[in-house]
Fold this sequence. Notes:
By secondary structure, chain A is α/β, with parallel strands linked by helices. Chain A has helices spanning about 1-15, 35-45, 50-65, 105-110, 115-125, 140-145, 155-160, 160-170, 180-185, 430-435, 440-455, 460-475, and strands at about 25-30, 85-90, 125-130, 135-140, 150-155, 190-195, 205-210, 220-225, 230-240, 250, 255-260, 265-270, 285-295, 300-305, 310-315, 315-320, 325-335, 340-345, 345-350, 355-365, 370-380, 385-395, 400-410, 415-425.
Amino acid sequence: MAENDKIIDEVVANDYKYGFTTNIEQEFAAVGLSEDTVRFISAKKEEPEWMLEWRLKAYKAWLKMEQPKWQNVHFPEIDFQSIIYYAAQKKKKVINSLDDVDPEIRNTYDKLGIPIQEQKLLAGVAVDYVMDSESVITTFRESLKEKGIIFCSISEAIRVQPELVKKYLGSVVPQRDNYYAALNSAVFSDGSFVYIPKGVRCPMELSTYFRINAENTGQFERTLIIADEGSYVSYLEGCTAPMRDENQLHAAVVELVTHDNAEIKYSTVQNWYPGDKEGKGGIYNFVTKRGICQGKNSKISWTQVETGSAITWKYPSCILKGDNSIGEFYSVAVTNNYQQADTGTKMIHIGKNTKSRIVSKGISAGKSQNSYRGQVQVHRTADNAYNSSQCDSLLIGDKCGAHTFPYLEIKNSTGKVEHEATTSKIGEDLLFYCNQRGLTNEEAVSMIINGYCKEVFKQLPMEFMVEAQKLLSISLEGSVG
Amino acid sequence: MSLAENISKQFAEVSNSNVVELRKNAFTAFEKLGIPSSRHEEWKYTNIKTKLNEQLSLTPVDSQVNAAVKNYIASLPPYSFRIIFLNGVFHPELSIVPDTKGLTVCSLREAFGSHTTLVEKHFGKLINYNEEHFAALNTAFVNDGVFIHVQKNVTVNEPIYVQYFFTASDINAFTQTRSLAIVEEGASIQIAEDFRNASNINVQYNHVSEVFVGKNASIDIVKLQLEVSNAIGIHTLESQVERDGKFSAATVTFSSPNTGTGSAIIRNNVTARLIGENSHADLNGLYFGKENAHIDNHILVDHVAPNCTSNQLYKGVLSGDSTGVFNGKIFVKPDAQKTNAFQSSKALLLSNDASINSKPQLEIFADDVKCSHGAAVGQLDENALFYLRARGITKEEATQILTYAFAHEVIDHIHSKPIRQFLCDKLKDELKVNF
């Protein structure tokens, strides 16, 4: 029950508890987007010529594109000229140990409840902190280096591993893939780069925490993970952002590549500022995440817990190109107040005997709108492809909406595709049963929802699982009763 | 001259005196909408724009009864009510409409004159011509169709059989037909609409049905599209159901061997709008695609009032290089609490070149609901096939038996016994099973 008490305490605390601002001197790019902005960012990052050209190509493609309008979310037009595309910390010094980290930043992370030392010692997690687009420190690098694993910021990878970056960057999400991916390709500031060499099983969970810190800066992260033959890696991405009034744009791109017999497990807990109870403020989270199972018997597994952001719009996808490859997508998306979410996945079966599994749990409360949008494609070449999808939606309150838009496109007669979706509210009989046993309504709902999401939560690494359960309770606070 | 220009020119020539205002509005809407391309979300998988002939002629051309029509009429079960259209023109000499108390069945053209108030009150009221391209086109150009009115508390036990034949020799004819059915409080009726190409060329047609189900009334509609080859057929069926009313619609599509080189496209838009409490809708469908047939079913169940229920069951069997499209939508409006809505779409792919695009969709704005959908695509159960073969049945026969069982579930839901029997026989012929 101690865990429950903690949840209730946090529930009582009420306001967005991660809403605070760290005051660190920053260096900004000029407001707005032009070719000069792209050049400025590239120069700031001391990038080679080919990288600048790559960015400019993306920028030119972006200019010709139109903002997509098909999604089931509504927001005022974004003025791309009023955004600052680059913010880096001014004082840059070489950091060897955690003690050298700016105390303000250390303080921030302490408030977030991520004591670095403790994580370092107990959880065995190497954390690549990204504080507003700039890598602050990379821990555990030495021990990863021994195994030949490369885990660094993408800007460093561009300098140190140009061949790998050249080969894989944009290979899964090309520059002109979609409007926001093109924007990201042009102005991405930083992100993580992971390379796992042949036959290596990464000994620890790799993880980054992204924070959007300076006011008016869109965060354009770029992540690239490559798992070479027979390797394995589990990567965690967790997010919290401070309270702001103006909507902030976040357009990240994540690319995963697995070769023969390799596996990548990518987990996300996203808890950015969702806006206040009247729907004012909040983050726009427009993300392109895609992985390709390039080799035989490879596997990509996406797990996401989406509780934050005013608008969440993302579809972590798998291209199952290698024979016998497997794609998985586990998602919990929670929306409350005026939040909107349009999220799901794409499973593209190209190779023979490919399998995919989709489990999506949506919870909508308050006046929020929550949509699942998924696509399963079985190409002519994909003999014996198998997909099973399950999308459940839970409605709490009579002002919210839950929507399901699955697209199933099957072009091979040996393919098997099964899709099931349900929408309902929490059964009164379930609540009554819990009440009878002395649980309050809030406790009962919290318990039922955690049970409802368990299938997804159990995919998460241990420490994320606990955090995810707490986040769920906080997100739904006030909507039950 | 583009198709749009061609159509505009022809509208100027439509000299009908009835519902002029509505026609004009619908036409203006159509001019704005045009013919949808595959970039339009509702037409994503059916590229109709490239398939329609630019020289389409929307004015009906009457023709003589040919042997194919005569033979087919002779093969029909002895229905008490039989209404026959040739190329969208009513043929009273071929039709049988016995006088029945409380029931009016006549051509729409006649009804514009004899039941003006009733028709004007209902005609075009269920069509959203600002969004539906072909319903707008139909409203602007409609020439004739059938009008059915059932008075309060009248039960009609025999099905009303409406047969639309296409015998045109004009390859450019784009026939626009329409039916309007009004069933008053407590009344009930069964209607069958049959579409058949009795010519040896490709035909195009665009049919709209509007159905009003009164309080505690019931309507069963069966749409038969038994030979879709050599035809582009667009069907729109819009219904509105009041308190305690029941609406059931079954769409059965069979493609016959393609004799020509033309397209075989069938598009069905079926909408049930439950506007009164405790009303119910059953929307079922069965489709067999062969060769290059393209069969597209778009279904929408709109739950507006609380305490309503709906069921959808769609099954398809696709072979050759045929394509199936299924888009089933369930909308639950904010006030429609205590809604139970179910949907199931299943497709069998029997050849490697066949494909299916399925999009079951739920949009729910009320919380106290139970809604679910399931979609499955696959093959016949290996174990069931093995079981039958172990008992000395050949693989081919076993496949036919299992396919028959798979398809029969939809036919089982049809209420009218003669029509159910007719379809059972048809299904047996199609699958060459005899038991």
